[in-house]
Amino acid sequence: MKDIDKKALLVSLKIKKWSLSKKAVQAAQEGAKAVGAKEGSISSNKNLLGGKDNNSYFDKIDNIRIAGQEAGDFFREQTLPWSNEGQRILLNRNKSNFDSGMRKHEGKFQQAVKDYLNVHNSAITEAKQYLGTEYNQDDFPADIASKYAWSVDYVPVPVGNDFRIELAEEEMKEMQENLDNRNAQLANDAMKEAYGKLEKEVGLIADYFEREKAAQAAGKKTRFHDSLVENLNNVLSIIPDINLTDSQELKELAKEAKKELAELSSEKIKEMKPAEKESKKKAAKKIAENCAGFMGEVAA
User: Fold this and answer.
1) Lowest mean pLDDT among 34-38, 57-61, 65-69, 191-195
2) DSSP secondary structure, 163-225, as one string
3) Which of 22, 67, 135, 266 could bridge 131 with an S-S bond, Cβ 3.0-4.6 Å?
4) Which residue, 227, 258, 249, 247, is CA-closest to 91?
5) How far is the C-alpha of 11 from the C-alpha of 99, rounded, in Å?
6) Which of 21, 72, 65 is nearest to 47 (CA)?
7) Which contiguous run of DSSP H or E holds residue 255?
8) What is each CA distance from 64 to 48, 54, 72, 138, 295, in whole angstroms?
9) How far apart are CA 14 and CA 148, in angstroms?
10) Neighbours of 272 (CB within 10 A)
11) H or E element: which one contains 11?
12) What is the pLDDT of residue 165?
């Protein structure tokens, strides 16, 4: 893909959280002894706050996990895979929307951290009664705030002409070609995920119509969940911002999905005749198959 460095950035999200899980050495030893097993053959973990169903402050720390998970979901939704180091590619035209969304998620994460830090000492006090002899003050960090961190980092996409070192002409040319070829392959792999997002959602709708037809033949009923269409529309809304290569094929498939499936609902399906349902099933199936086909031959 040409000029990729002018169209996109590499972005990484790092969220650091305190782990509540720690090996329960004494419990493992006693467990092994109780069943006649050799020491070391059985392992056991403890939750440092005594568990979700016990500690009345657990929801505070769980809100941090939820905020981090939602941030990660948004990060992956708005970007495409790029490197094994966790970097993903973000189109410049989507950066403003991405930055705005990430700021909201960071605010939610930092507020959740603040809310937990305010009750941390009380949560530890309560945990003592649930952990029994497994309670160990040394398991708890002296500076709990240092266990939480958030960062979003951007770097340019490296391309062949980025080399700033003196090399023989042939070595320089080979390194540039290798890097540009690698970028082309990474762009290719990224676009497979873009097609894959659409394939997944239209495929689920096609599967519903298949199940409904089988259920009706057996004299049974099946329910259409409107979330199927909500998820499809969410993907359709982000496709313009993740279409890294400006693929016309992806644009056309998204357009077809919007035309055929984006207005479906449980109420509308109830009013449909069998022929209409069959038509929608075929449309969804065709779009999914075309997505899968392009995923196998995408070229950056």
Assistant:
1) 34-38
2) --S---HHHHHHHHHHHHHHHHHHHHHHHHHHHHHHHHHHHHHHHHHHHHHHHHHTT---PPP
3) 135
4) 247
5) 11
6) 21
7) helix 248-261
8) 16, 18, 12, 23, 36
9) 10
10) 14
11) strand 8-16
12) 47
Mention every residue, 6+ apart, whose C-beta is less than 8 A from residue 21. 45, 46, 47, 48
pLDDT classification of 26: cutoffs 50, 70, 90: low
Q: 238 is written with which tokens?
A: 């982000």
User: Tens digit of pLDDT for each residue in 258-300?
Assistant: 999 999 999 999 999 999 999 999 999 999 999 999 877 644 3
Residue 187's contacts (CB-CB under 8 Å, 6 or more residues apart) are 1, 4, 89, 244, 245, 300
Q: Strand runs (DSSP E) across 124-177, as ranges?
A: 149-156
Contact 199, 295 (CB under 8 A): yes
The full 3-state SS of 33-76, as one line of letters, equals HHCCCCCCCCCCEEECCCCCCCCCCHHHHHHHHHHHHHHHHHHH
* Beta carbons of 291 and 232 less than 8 angstroms apart: no
Supply the mean pLDDT for the chain.
87
The single residue listed with the structure tokens 């969804």 is 284
> Which phi and psi angles does 15 have, rounded to 5°?
-120, 120
Average pLDDT value for residue range 141-165: 82
CB 280 within 8 A of CB 264: yes
Q: If you search the block for the tokens 């392009």, which residue do you land on? A: 294
How far apart CA 178 and CA 173 sit, in angstroms, is: 9
Instruction: List the beta bridge partners of residue 23.
Output: 45
